[in-house]
Write a structure and sequence with these properties.
Elements: H1 30-35, H2 42-49, H3 52-55, H4 66-77, H5 83-87, H6 97-110, H7 115-123, H8 129-145, H9 150-160, H10 166-181, H11 188-196, H12 208-214, H13 230-241
Helix pairs in contact: 2-4, 4-6, 6-8, 7-8, 7-9, 8-9, 8-10, 9-10, 12-13
């Protein structure tokens, strides 16, 4: 039996909905309006997101886009019941650049109710830095989309900078990126202390001067050539120094697709 026949309507309709297009994670209700999803469909949607057959389907097929439609639908449902199941998929789908890129925005769409679970995930040493960076990116996305909880998210991210084990050193680099993305000037002293205390892996983030410029604490030594500004310059600097990426920086950068059986899906 093929995957197509193991899902019931309306979830099964996602398998023939076709290639994904530009999508507004903040305001869209496209999937709810078109398919009428409710909380009772969450288990089936989660199953579709993690479906190995779909995630390895031919890139020219319609059903290969099903998991993306499914997690976008979960975001639109804005239901707390989807948070932990989605988090459980982070390590499973760590080679899927679509999931890594969009996961933080799905959680942000669900809303601030996801913060406690993300805080716990970020602090859990059972997960590696790659997985936990997705939680950091998600806190950044929530803080951006829901300004009323920005201070709480900044505090959670800043507290993690105190840890200096090898995994935390890598994670701290991504946390710095998120704090810069949030213009968290209030975290500057903790960021500086993390650099001074060797609590940031220098393969992932090594330039305190650029961080200060990005936070507006000092002027750049020379005029920036990059039209996208200091954030893009800092990220470019990171990419040049780092090993192949395991997660996105600033919560928005595309990650590199790892080699494997899964064919690349074309972006629109």
């Amino acid at each position: 039996m093929t995957t197509l026949h193991t899902y019931a309507p309306p979830v099964s309709q996602l398998l023939t909905y076709g290639e994904v297009l530009k999508y507004d994670f903040k305001n869209s209700t496209l999937y709810l309006e078109k398919f009428g999803f409710t909380a009772e469909h969450i288990p089936e949607l989660i199953r579709m997101v993690s479906d190995e057959e779909l995630n390895k389907a031919d890139s020219e097929s319609l059903e290969v886009w099903g998991p993306i439609h499914a997690w976008r639908s979960l975001g639109e449902l804005r239901n707390e019941a989807a948070i932990h199941p989605l988090l459980s998929l982070v390590t499973l789908l760590d080679e899927d650049d679509w999931f890594i890129d969009e996961f933080p925005h799905v959680l942000a769409q669900i809303g601030p109710v996801a913060i406690p679970a993300l805080r716990d995930y970020l602090a859990n040493p059972d997960y590696n830095a790659s997985a936990r960076s997705s939680a950091a990116n998600s806190l950044e996305a929530i803080a951006t989309q829901h300004p009323e909880v920005r201070d709480e998210c900044v505090r959670i991210l800043t507290e993690r900078l105190a840890y200096s084990d090898p995994e935390s050193q890598i994670l701290n680099g991504f946390i710095v990126f998120s704090l810069v993305g949030l213009k968290a000037v209030e975290a500057a002293s903790e960021i500086e202390a993390a650099f001074a205390g060797d609590r940031i892996n220098k393969d992932w983030c090594d330039n305190w001067e650029l961080v200060q410029v990005a936070l507006g604490l000092k002027e750049p030594k020379k005029k920036l050539k990059n039209p996208d500004g200091i954030l893009a310059l800092l990220e470019e600097h990171h990419k040049k120094r780092s090993k192949p990426q395991v997660a996105s920086g600033f919560g928005s950068a595309e990650t590199q697709k790892k080699s494997g059986n899964k064919k690349n899906k074309k972006r629109k």
